[in-house]
Amino acid sequence: MVPVAITACSLVTALGGGTAANWAALARGQCGLRPCDLAGVGLATWIGRVAGLEQVRLPAELLDFDCRNNRLALLGLDTDELAQRVAAARSRYGADRIGVFLGTSTSGMSAAEQAYAARDPVNDRLPEDFRYATTQNLDSLTAFCRRFLGLRGPSFTLSTACSSSAKVFAAAARMLALGLCDAALVGGVDSLCLTTLYGFASLELLAPGPCAPWDAHRQGISISEAAGFALLEREGAEFALLGYGESADAHHMSTPHPEGTGAALAMRRALARAGLDAGAIDYVNLHGTGTRLNDCSEDRAMLQVFSRPVAASSTKGWTGHTLGACGAVEALVTLLALRRSWLPPCRFVTGPDPALATPVLTAGRTQRVSYAMSNSFGFGGNNCSLIFGRTP
Amino acid sequence: MISHLLHLESVGFLADGLADWAAAATVLRGSADYHPQPLVVPPLARLPAAERRRITPCIALALAAVEQALGERAQVADLQYVFASSYGDMAIADALCRALALPDRPVSPTRFHNSVHNAPAGYWSLAAQTRAPATSICLEGGSLAAGLLEAVVQAVAEGVPVLLVAYEYPAPAPLNRVVPLIGPCAVALVLAPAGNGPCLRVGGFEAARVSRLDNPLLEALRTGNDAAQVLPLLKRVACAQPGPVWLPYLDDRALRIEMVAGDGG
């Protein structure tokens, strides 16, 4: 495929606001997770929380969009000068020529949870001030960003669980290739809500402590929140998206394929589109959620694709699992690894699981990276792998 | 906007009083009156029984349109899939929010995994045993046009046939007061870069008035369910009448789609 330049990006996670703060936190081995202290939640688990979200105020003309998820989106747009970079692109290309493709799994679901808790006990009605379209609806995130940035190009919200904001890179690359837009804002925003906390609890997938992907005694995931954005253009940056691969597992709704067949297919398709052999990849940012089955499945997939070990790590032990945002967050971590020539390690509690054959980084490593891959696999067996590298 | 022509290989359609594409085409041609009797979604032939028990009416509606459009098509592995819905599975959202409002928050694990927007796509991959890429999108008020555009983009960019399915299923109370849909509707279109069937071409985004239907009952369906926004396009197909239609897209703009004369390709 024709490479797509990454001309700007921003990142807000439980580790901090901005790509520099996130990178510094990864470099000093800071864990962004803490015991769950979300008001009214009595689950024995750890979460990643973005600081200061409660104090964020949306612009007066966009107050209808006010919910935790859109506040987090605003933080992301206001970080790393992203909004200014998008405004500059808008004056170059025109508002109609910039697409907006964002991923989320729950959008403003927390607003719906609050509205249901405040139902009229007599007639069961939701409160009059509940704004469905601008909060709960999946597209509320993307509509908010379109309005805030004044963008009018092709747009939609993509929601395929934990692969959502990886797949937006593929969607935007196709739109750019066909000339439907000259630039595209992509990214993902997901925020803490009861639905995901109690939903993953019902599946018994929440770790009681901070998650530790690839650890011998890993016990599940740590739910977290984040916003990650990237501006894509045809040229004008040192680093580019070189390939994407999408696939389905066709196995189970919430359990990955035991042999990682679908995941391996996504990686192979990404390699084929980038015109690369697996041996060319210097670093893989694993999906690595920290559940026993997910890590086993991805390990099997890695073995099928990479005949020789490749430097790999999951960064979810530091950021937590940001669900619909993790594709974008980890794409940006992968880009930072390329830019800074440093590979982040996994965070371990007891040490790597000997049952997993893919060796992962136990300490950060300084290494020049030419090509790097980021994996994202979601519920419904929905997989996406992205490959980044220097712009040819 | 996209100069390529795409062949509309097949259509699936379900709504109240319109059990399949043949019934819808007859009504759209004006050869039969429209009586919106409540829709009974047929059982899904391809889904394993265990999975069939787990799906919701909204998922069943989407998959019924997919099965109808694919019919006896032997090859389903060469297709990519675009699932588009403005409101998703509101019964699941309602059930989850009700459970979360209770003191002990008894969330059902099956409901939780069914709550992802890509649940119909996931079940379809199980039903068809296909590992083909599938995406699930939402553009509130314009998911049909956004889905159609994405399907065309995938078909042209990757040179493969793409199945678009757009679906909307009414919400239970109290959500039905904030999202009032007239009834269920799902449409599936198989768009192929080469082959048979009438040709479609995607034009640009225009600040044009969206296309409407003369029949007041069909027009009520079109305005009452985002998936039924496809009806003006399907009317051209049913009547073999080339020309453009304008489908609601973003803000004040419509997506122009043109049906091109003949079977050519």
Could you characterize the architecture of this molecule?
The complex is a heterodimer of chains A (392) and B (265). Chain A has 392 residues and is α/β, with parallel strands linked by helices. Chain A has a single domain, classed as 3-Layer(aba) Sandwich (Peroxisomal Thiolase, Chain A, domain 1). Chain A contains twelve helices and 15 strands. Chain A has helices spanning 19-27, 68-77, 82-93, 109-117, 132-136, 140-149, 164-177, 194-202, 261-274, 292-305, 316-319, 326-340, and strands spanning 4-13, 16-17, 33-35, 46-48, 98-103, 155-158, 183-190, 226-233, 239-248, 283-285, 311-313, 342-343, 365-366, 371-378, 382-390. In chain A, strands 1, 2, 5, 6, 7, 8, 9, 10, 11, 14 and 15 form an eleven-stranded mixed β-sheet that branches. Chain A has a two-stranded antiparallel ribbon with strand order 3-4. Chain A has a two-stranded antiparallel ribbon with strand order 12-13. Chain B has a single domain (8-197), classed as Thiolase/Chalcone synthase (Peroxisomal Thiolase, Chain A, domain 1, 3-Layer(aba) Sandwich), CATH 3.40.47. Chain B has helices spanning 21-28, 49-54, 57-70, 90-100, 109-114, 119-128, 143-158, 216-224, 231-238, and strands spanning 6-15, 80-84, 134-138, 162-168, 185-192, 199-206, 243-248, 254-260. Chain B has nine helices and eight strands. With 265 residues, chain B is an alpha+beta fold. In chain B, helix 1 (21-28) packs across helix 9 (231-238) and helix 3 (57-70) packs across helix 6 (119-128). Chain B has an eight-stranded mixed β-sheet, sandwiched between helices. The interface between A and B is large, with 64 and 63 residues. Strand 6 of chain A pairs antiparallel with strand 3 (134-138) of chain B.
Text of the CATH class of chain A: Alpha Beta
The CATH class of chain B, by name, is Alpha Beta
Structural classification of chain B: alpha+beta
Mean pLDDT of chain A: 97
The CA-CA distance between the termini of chain A, in Å, is 12 Å
CATH architectural category of chain B? 3-Layer(aba) Sandwich
Number of separate helices of chain B = 9
Main interface by residue count: A-B, 64 and 63 residues
The biggest beta sheet of chain B reads: 8 strands, mixed
Superfamily at the CATH H level of chain A? Thiolase/Chalcone synthase
Approximate strand percentage of chain A? 15-25%
Roughly what fraction of the amino acids of chain B lie in strands? 15-25%
| C-alpha-based Rg of chain B, rounded | 18 Å
Oligomer: heterodimer
In the CATH hierarchy, the third-tier topology of chain B is known as: Peroxisomal Thiolase, Chain A, domain 1
Low-confidence stretches of chain A: none
Main β-sheet of chain A: number of strands, strand sense, barrel status? 11 strands, mixed
Counted up, domains of chain A total: 1
Lateral strand order in the biggest sheet of chain B: 3-2-4-5-1-6-8-7
Number of strand segments of chain B: 8
